[in-house]
Amino acid sequence: MEQHLRKQGLRVKQVDLFELVLQLLEAKGYLDVVLQEEASWSKSDLFDTLQNVAEPTSALVPKLMADLGDDTQVSLITGSGRVYPFLRTHTILEALQPAMVRHPVVIFFPGEYSQDADGGSYLRLFGTSATTKIENPHYRATNLDYFDIKSS
What pTM was estimated for this model as a whole? Predict the structure, then answer.
């Protein structure tokens, strides 16, 4: 997709969420500690550490926006499955929404996106059952399967 969009003359930037989290851990001096001590930590301690370091509104989205730069026309975000469950895709998208009014964002998601009749949205990671309904009225995600994209 990135190559196709570039051939169309668009300025495209791809960012991997997992790599972004590793950069945040490193910047805060936690990466080596997590790598060395992770086996001895409880799952909840590791989960809390990762969630705190990569909190979407205060840490992840500002880092993401800095990495994307000001001249990007389309952003491609990968790695959502690799940061689950400590970062949830709908949480990232909702935190990203106010910052991404400049251009389209495509987030690659290993699952399904669906909407019900009352406008609620669901993200089902890896085909699991939908447990979290997204009811943010400003949530504008659209499944790319709905678009008729033709290659040239």
Answer: 0.79
